[in-house]
Model the fold of this input.
Amino acid sequence: MTDNLRELVIAGSGVAGLSTAVYAARADLNPVVLEGDEPGGQLTLTTEVENYLGFPEGIGGMDLVQRGRKQAEQFGAEFRRAGIESPDLDSRPFELSLSNDETIRTRALVVATGASARWVGADKEDELMGYGLSTCATCDGAFHRGDDVLVVGGGDSAMEEAAFLARFASSVTVVHRRDELGASEILTQRVFDHEDVEIRWNTELVRLRGSQQDGVTGAKLVSHPDGYPAEKYEDGESVEVETVDVGGVFYAVGHVPNTDFLRETPVELDTDGHIVTGGDTGTTVDGVFAAGDVMDSRYQQAITAAGTGSMAALDAEAWLETRQLAAPNPQ
Ligand code: NDP
Done:
């Protein structure tokens, strides 16, 4: 226990947390940003961001995040390499036990912990993640020069990863569980235009082959003309089964919000684990606000995360102000 009392703690250092930090620091709230396990968040795993307003030539994801951090630090935000392990949100001020064994007390909290890559649930994925199986083509694509690789998924991430991997791999096969992509037109067209990328429709990956020593060497795929073949396979329905030789597999099947640390708290989560907010960024706990992918299952864009980040800072600032007016010396 320390006497480390702050006005505002921001959990998460992705674009949402950074935007909160810029606004809060400019409002003299002296925010502490807890960087968490993945400093900079998901943007650090992206190559080029082409649709962030103000960068007509595009900007690298890492570059955007580093600029955001510099901007926040310039106004006085403080960064700590830790995440929240166990929050006591019933006490006032809140008491947060951190992963670096520190305890920090704060009057207000903005949760901007983002989301992490979802896994498919194929056999052997636990063993092979990081050994030829990856959730980040930008990070690991270059290890697959000359390989045949699979990308699992049918959204924008899958299209982006497939186009990126085609630079290194000998062939890229996108494995999608339905016969229709959810990706945007522009990214889909880039994949369709690429002669080394093929799409396997109505197909799912159910098992990986390989070892930590040899990496991924193959994948078992199931197909069914009506889609969602893995479910049908598990139910014992007849599906087409094929084992293919591949040197790498990339998952691009969406994300799950990072809210496990809130499960025992009164902060309400929806069935997918996203934080429930009302008309603003306030949560079901007075003084706790949420921003970015952790509360947004719909838009999930860098620019919307930055937008909700600034909203959370403004909401927290207004909330702190009303409390101080109501109780001049709050403890
Ligand atoms: P999405 O949720 O959009 O897509 C996930 C894909 O994975 C879907 O095709 C889904 O299939 C499939 N899927 C989900 N679970 C499984 C499973 N268990 N097994 C097999 N397939 C599965 O996630 P993305 O990461 O692609 O995109 C997230 C957000 O980020 C979107 O808003 C997107 O627009 C944005 N984005 C934008 C980019 C850009 O503009 N440059 C780049 C990347 C992302 P189904 O369709 O059947 O549900």
